[in-house]
Amino acid sequence: MIKILVATDLSERSAHAVQRAVQLIRRQGGGEWSLLHVIDDDAPAAHVQRQVQQAESLLQSQAERLGEQAGSVPRVIVATGEAATLIVEGARGMGADLLVVGAHRKSALRDFFVGTTLERVVRSSHLPVLRVNGPVTHEYRQALVAMDLSRTSQQALKRARDLGLTSLDKLSVASAVEPVAAGVVMEAGISAEVLENQRELLRQQLVERLDALGATLSHERLLVQVGSPEGVVGEALSQSGADLLVLGTHAREGVSRFFLGSVASRLLGTLDCDALIVPPAG
Fold first, then answer.
1. Chain centroid to CA 238
2. pLDDT the model gives residue 83
3. CA quadruple 243, 114, 96, 279: dihedral positive or negative?
4. Residue 221 above 60 pLDDT?
5. pTM here?
6. Which CATH superfamily is domain 4-132 in?
7. Range 143-278 classified under CATH 3.10.20.30
8. Which residue of 3, 35, 55, 197 is most buried, as measured by CB atoms within 10 A?
């Protein structure tokens, strides 16, 4: 059974994350899960203490109801301090397999998927992070893996399967031949045919790696195009109807070079689907 930590700011967005965790725990017949709420301690001690008491009271009142839905009652944790540090400590403390969060906007976790907080949590905990973007109406029906030729992309696909978030018959793959490289090719006077050959080579290499993982995909389920990663992934999401995006990361580079820095932020900030961000194992 997987162990789940849900980071919540008590907002409606976090409620979506809690409900996704309920669905995951219920599907495996119960299991260990926790709700973690972090309160910024940069305020008078009396004010912080009141916030702690209010949050504990609210979450404890919800825990029994959630337990009835999920098949096991979640542990409630309310902590004060720096969000990323406490999330990592909480995950390690319970031996969590998955961190589930909502698409936070107005909280101590508001920058969770923009910049250093995401990188710190993923790098420090080596914990897959599931960002839940909307109401939970059903289990994930189709996953899209954003894949390059790195080992981390293959690990992300495998982890998504191990966590029960997708299966080989319910996934598609998207990969991009960077347009910057395409511009260099064209300026050098090399024909577009060379660029097309690069695209076909990438496709064949991906097919070989997928075959090694036991994933034989039809042509329609493997999209390899020239363009920006966000453009290619956006089109693939539309074509496949996927409701979960899977991204692999490098421990020392933050998000995989397939999605360098701001590209990952744009993907996670503009796409409506849920996203699983998977770092390499520690």
1. 18
2. 85
3. positive
4. yes
5. 0.87
6. HUPs (3.40.50.620)
7. no
8. 35
